[in-house]
Amino acid sequence: QVRLVESGGGLVTAGGSLRLSCAASGRTFSNYAMGWFRRAPGKEREFVAAISWSGGITGYADSVSGRFAISRDNAKNTVYLQMNSLKPEDTAVYYCAARWRPILAILKNREDYEYWGQGTQVTVSS
Fold it and tell me: What is the mean pLDDT of residues 28-55?
């Protein structure tokens, strides 16, 4: 089992940047594929970005491609989401998720993940 704790959320004006972190504890972090999801008010939780357990493959939702970057530091048991050129529509609670060595490198469906953090709020003002 793994425990996930997100941090780094906050209030930022449009065009600004934030970096989210997700610290993992428990089983060997390097064996987990990781993902970021978000849930805006009144909407379903949606995929944002994912990274393979090896770290060599990443995937993004179309809405954030070119603006967000996911990375991981296995020595620190942490996955990051660098968010640039933020827009008001990026406002949401952001969650990180983990799945033990899946067959697929990138997981974009929330049902594919086993573990979730508690979320961190990101608010982008116009």
Answer: 94
Query: Which amino acid is located at 26 in the chain?
Result: G
Length of the chain: 126
**Which two tokens mark 74?**
């296995």
Q: What is the pLDDT of residues 96-120, one digit of tens each?
A: 999 998 888 889 999 999 999 999 9
Task: Specify whether the CB–CB gap between 100 and 114 falls below 8 A.
Answer: yes
Q: Which residues lie closer than 8 Å to 10 by C-beta, 6 or more apart?
A: 18, 121, 122, 123
pLDDT grade for 53, boundaries at 50, 70 and 90: confident
- Rounded CA separation 92/29 (Å): 26
